[in-house]
Specification:
heterodimer, A: mainly alpha, 14 helices, B: mainly alpha, 11 helices, 62% helix, 0% strand
Chain lengths: 330, 258
Amino acid sequence: MYTQALNSSDGDDRGVEDVARASQFQARIDADERIEPNDWMPAAYRKTLTRQISQHAHSEIVGMLPEGNWITRAPSLRRKAALLAKVQDECGHGLYLYAAAETLGTSREELVDAMLSGKAKYSSIFNYPTLTWADIGTIGWLVDGAAIMNQIPLCRCSYGPYARAMIRVCKEESFHQRQGFEIMVTLCRGTAEQKAMAQNALDRWWWPVLMMFGPPDQASQHSDTSTKWKIKRFSNDELRQKFIDATVPQAEFLGLTIPDPGMKQNANGNWEHSPIDWDEFKQVLAGNGPCNRDRLAARRKAHEEGAWVREAAMAYAEKRRSRQLAQAAE
Amino acid sequence: MATANIEVSETPLVLYALRRADDALILGHRLSEWCGHAPAMEEDMALANMGLDLLGQARELYTYAAKVEGRGNDEDKFAYLRDVRQYRNLLLLEQPNGDFARTMVRQFFYAAFADLYWRAMMASSDPTLAAIAAKSEKESAYHVRHSSEWIVRLGDGTEESHRRAQGAIDDLWAYTGEMFAVDDSERGLIDAGIAIDPATLKSRWLKTVTGIINEATLSLPKSDWMQQGGRSGSHSEHLGHLLSELQSMQRTFPGATW
């Protein structure tokens, strides 16, 4: 109900571009001011952010599935509690981000429906399966590690609600990342079988994780305007490079081999990777990853099987409201 | 290789702690099965939250059982290396999640009991149990509130939700009697002031439950036949499947540290 008030300020001119206002808006961005929900903003800015924040929210919610796959099989009570808490955090991030997206004028229901219908995307990394316990360590170490690289700059994003959400999300993500790395340390210090499990997980996740940063800079669709609007502050390739440079010594510490025999350190100290198989990326994005169908099916099932519960809650709230009104009238 | 089940010296105090620990672990595990699949994101959060509370209770109680037993067992050995016949939880708590109504009815029946139980146990002459009780009581109070609200919403919601909630009550009712049962092993602890007698809580539990069930326009079954056996290891068929999943890693990779 409060969000309606937030959205009413520009209800009529939403979608209408105004040159003078647009230049004022850009001046505010250039002066590093934060844009808030009540402020005027170009329709394209609103659209870009709605897409990005809701995709981010969908990723958190779909991302619960691959890790949730191991909650009931976690190998110790401590790991079980930590994993359940972690997946719960992800749900919290999802809720938080849907709320941030709603400040731009689209309801959570609409956003979720777009995901369930397959229209809206979520991060492709969650279309890969978690086959062993080492995948849980690897996801924390690398997937959350990559997410942090992407998200730290978003804490300074020009849109206030998103930036503030990211500050909190990043704190929790960095905890998750350390937790994942600690699982890897334990595996790598364990039996030969455990270490092989860790190496195998790294082999399977390495390339998909590098793809998380998105297409190479020459091929990226959204970067130019996003950079101008200070939604994006570093290019895909810059972030990918930062991630690789941070990760190589960690793999070395673990005694694991990054599955890229061609990787070499250049004169600047940066690690240069072999070419990424962007065809695989395109295939997964197009719905042909190993788990795309399973993930969507699981979310749809939860949504459909929960429909009667949500209907009951609405019906009860309605009954209670009318009873209260009737009482007040007496 | 430690593939075999552990042996447990079930002295009355060890058995007591294991029974409550198993209750918390098994129900916590069941709730954790919902994670990512709940009817609304808010419920994903709430069910995980309650699951975490219960896992925490289980860990404290197992750790205490291990200390009292003093045979080198620990929380993980108790959880992962006992077979169905060695588990001591209430039958109610191992019942499958079913639909959301069934999960909520199971939660409500147990939480309404656990809240009273842990509050009374705060007066235990055993300081560890009294401390665990104090923490668990706070958590259970929320579990009662959360599940009661849902029972009322579902019972007084739509025709479908009413039918599902009533069906769950009818099916689960026969598992509620076990919460109040006491055997010789526990009788000694009650006499010594270490445990409290759950039978003394029954009328208050029934009052809470009846109040909510009435408000929800639902009804309790007339039958007073009650199933028992969980406390002595005679379980339903469901527990074995739960354990085969819960214990799969420890059974597959015996002796490894995770």
